[in-house]
Design a protein that fits this description.
By secondary structure, the chain is an alpha+beta fold. It has 2 domains: 59 residues, no CATH class; 102 residues. The chain is 35% helix and 24% strand. The protein contains 7 helices and 9 strands; from the N terminus they run H-H-E-E-E-H-E-H-E-H-H-E-E-H-E-E. A 5-stranded mixed β-sheet has the order 6-7-5-9-8. It has a 4-stranded mixed β-sheet with strand order 3-2-1-4, covered by helices on one side. A hairpin with a 2-residue loop joins strand 6 and strand 7. The radius of gyration is 19 Å and the shape is elongated. The structure holds zinc ion. The site of zinc ion has 7 residues, from helix 4.
Length: 194
């Protein structure tokens, strides 16, 4: 550990209040819930919290719900959505929004599902569409980046990923102006899409 006088040199985390950053919901959770024994169950999305870790297990969620053995809470991912805390944005501009929207949305939702299983904090917070443009807000930078990469892999076009580290945010641009869909191998194996 480096020696420094923390009263003089403060990290960004320590300066969070003056920088206008809010406390991460996960930290709030730690202080609120980690002393609780047993499992936590998000009553909105079904994510399970146990020993400072959150994970997704549909069968276990069902069981916990049925037996009422978990403490019902709102998980950090749902809290982020609730409080409008976004770390990523995907901006899509494509004629496919008009010609093949189902395929686009299927891929976007499938990517969200996969990322959510890996990290229950990763969620789509909002989707807004106007004309040939769609804006998707995500609760993690990783999810926004993944959505951009999956769109690019499946439908080609142009992808630009712009991290804004200072703001803990990533802006992802994807555009594809061909009206014909360029489905690729990655579109297979999409079973489980809802
Ligand atoms: Zn949740």
């Amino acid at each position: 550990m480096t020696k420094r006088n923390s009263s003089i040199v403060l990290s960004n985390k320590e300066r969070a209040p003056e920088l206008g950053h809010r406390m991460d919901p996960h930290q709030q959770f730690r202080s609120k819930f980690t002393q609780q024994p047993g499992r936590l169950l998000c009553n909105h999305c079904g994510a399970i919290g146990f020993h400072k870790r959150w994970y997704v297990d549909v069968a276990e969620s069902e069981n916990l719900k049925r037996t009422g053995t978990a403490q019902a809470v709102l998980c950090p991912g749902c809290t982020r959505i609730d409080e409008g805390i976004h770390e990523g944005e995907v901006i899509l501009e494509s004629l496919l929004l008009a010609s093949d929207k189902d395929a686009l949305m299927g891929l976007i939702k499938h990517t969200e599902g996969k990322c959510w299983h890996d990290n229950p904090f990763a969620r789509i917070a909002s989707i807004a569409e106007e004309g040939g443009r769609m804006e998707i807000r995500t609760t993690t930078r990783w999810l926004a980046t993944r959505i951009g990469k999956e769109l690019h892999k499946a439908f080609k076009g142009e992808l630009e990923i712009k991290p804004i580290p200072r703001e803990k945010f990533v802006r992802v641009y994807w555009s594809q102006q061909s009206p014909a869909i360029g489905k690729k191998e990655s579109m297979t194996g999409r079973k489980g899409v809802t």
